[in-house]
Write a structure and sequence with these properties.
Layout: H1 2-23, E1 30-34, H2 48-58, E2 64-70, E3 75-80, H3 86-100, E4 105-106, H4 109-121, E5 125-126, H5 132-153, H6 161-178, H7 182-199, H8 202-213
Antiparallel strand pairs: 1-3, 1-4, 2-3, 2-5
């Protein structure tokens, strides 16, 4: 029994050490920047479609190991390769920012220390391959907003919301995470219209389409 406990403790320690080794990064290899990648359509949320090409472009730079965006889309984390020199770091981060038209302002001092603590957990941080999750969250916010607008005009939509919302969510999620062309976005709008026609009567349909014409962004005090 004693031997079993010792083996179990050793396994736990080894596992923790391995996990720590995978996640720990020397603080001098991490830089943080304030970035304008928040989503206009969903307050407090990073814009996955805008962030994805930026993060992917950054990770192609020879000096950069990883590029991450926080959940709110306001902070960029750069993990540098160990041998990257300061002048190369500066040149490549600025080059990527210029290419993508993104303004970067480095975070320093106490704010950097606080950000480093948050980043150490990786909770609420996303790399380029993961920011579609932000797009999916954004799609949910947009669908809720459009349906609320329509319901304000035609309250009977409330009884159909349980089936309407998932159908609309699928279309808008596809648009936000998969479209890279005007044609794709037009096709998604056609699908949106078809879903609305299938689910709603004429008055409800007009209410939803009028809500959609106001755009995806919040209007006035909308959340």
């Amino acid at each position: 029994m004693h031997r079993f406990k010792m083996i179990l403790i050793a396994a736990l320690v080894t596992g923790q050490a391995a996990l720590w080794g995978r996640t720990q990064i020397s603080s001098n290899l991490v830089s943080f920047y304030q970035v304008p990648l928040a989503c206009p359509a969903a307050r407090g949320l990073g814009c996955g479609s805008a962030a994805k090409p930026v993060l992917q472009a950054l990770e192609k730079k020879s000096s950069i190991q990883e590029a991450w965006l926080d959940h709110s889309g306001t902070t960029l984390a750069i993990v540098w390769k160990k041998n990257a020199k300061a002048d190369l770091r500066s040149a490549e981060i600025q080059s990527a920012a210029d290419d993508r038209g993104v303004a970067l302002h480095e975070i320093t001092g106490e704010r950097r220390d606080d950000t480093l603590k948050s980043f150490a957990t990786r909770s609420g941080w996303y790399r380029g391959s993961e920011v579609d999750r932000l797009g999916e969250e954004e799609a949910g916010v947009i669908v809720d907003r459009l349906v609320r607008r329509a319901m304000a005009k035609e309250p009977t939509i409330a009884g159909k919301a349980d089936t309407l919302k998932p159908a609309l969510l699928k279309v808008i999620r596809e648009q936000l995470t998969g479209c890279t062309s005007t044609q794709c976005r037009e096709d998604c709008h056609k699908k949106f219209t078809e879903v609305a026609h299938q689910q709603l009567n004429d008055r409800e349909f007009r209410a939803l389409m009028n809500a959609e014409k106001l755009g995806y962004r919040p209007v006035g005090d909308e959340q």
